[in-house]
Amino acid sequence: MIQNIGFIGAGVMGKSMIRNLMKKGFHVTVYSRTKSKAEDLIAEGADWKDDAGSCAQGQDAVITIVGYPKDVEEVYFADNGILANAKKGAILIDMTTSSPNLAKRIYDAAKEKGMSSLDAPVSGGDTGAKAGTLSIMVGGDEDVLAQAMPVFEAMGTNIIYEGGPGCGQHTKMANQIALSGCLASVCEAIVYSQKVGLDTQKMFDSISKGAAGSWQLSNNGLKMLQEDYDPGFFIKHYIKDMRIADDEAKRASFDMPILDQVLKMFEHLDEEGMGDLGTQALIKYYTEK
């Protein structure tokens, strides 16, 4: 039974996930590169450790949700990292959106040390993280998922076993591919309505409940109308995801013209210094030319 969890990464998503784990009675030990991000969690009952290895020691499960694949590689494979310090029998769960090939490497390395590994990226943004309603896409061994299910149920409501190691990450790539065109289309609908003189709020209310309705329209579209660009999901992190998806598609000899175009839009915004804004700031590509 999992009772003690080491959690590495206390960013926009991780902080809410940690809170939901504590609400369900798990004892959570936290490490983040910036301790100030975790001060409120410590005040609420989480323990603090000064590095990833110390955070992993003695834990029944270790969860990571960090920024980039290079960060995942560091926290798992460094001398003071997870694989060198977690106990035999621990379940290692990477919830970062990362490389499927890296997920397989972690799986193999964990197995050699008598540990188990799951790749379990999430979808639902900061809203889903706070509400505990994340969609969680799990790759690895199905019997290990069964052991970890109470942990996932503390953070999400749509938890699906996708297949072997790396399949969670591949499914998340499909998610990121699908939302690229949706997000750009929401921007275009809003700007179109402005250009032709519609009451944009009335337009939004009219189409959001019909066939055009989507999570992107109802959530990020509303933020666009309110000119709210605070990050539920950073532009810089979505660029990372799209590049991973593009690389994987190239390995499969598959072209994705829509994703490629949206990636170029976001890269332009990043070059203009907007990488720390939320993905809903894509509308600035259309309005600030």
Could you explain how this protein is built, in words?
The protein is of the alpha/beta class. The protein has helices spanning 12-23, 39-43, 52-56, 69-77, 100-112, 125-131, 142-153, 167-195, 200-207, 215-225, 235-251, 257-271, 283-287; strands at 4-8, 27-31, 47-48, 61-64, 91-94, 116-119, 122-123, 134-139, 156-163. The strands form two sheets. A six-stranded parallel beta sheet has the order 3-2-1-4-5-6, sandwiched between helices. Strand 5, helix 5 (100-112) and strand 6 form a beta-alpha-beta unit. The protein is globular and about 65 Å long. The mean pLDDT is 96.
Radius of gyration: 20 Å
Give the percentage of residues in beta strands: 5-15%
Shape assignment: globular
| Helix and strand sequence | EHEHEHEHEHEEHEHEHHHHHH
Mean pLDDT, all residues: 96
Q: Compute the separation of the termini in Å.
A: 55 Å
Low-pLDDT stretches: none
Report the biggest beta sheet as strand number plus sense, adding barrel if it closes: 6 strands, parallel
- Number of E-type strands: 9
Number of helices: 13
Structural class by helix and strand composition? alpha/beta
- Share of helix, binned: 40-55%
Going across the major beta sheet, what is the strand order?
3-2-1-4-5-6
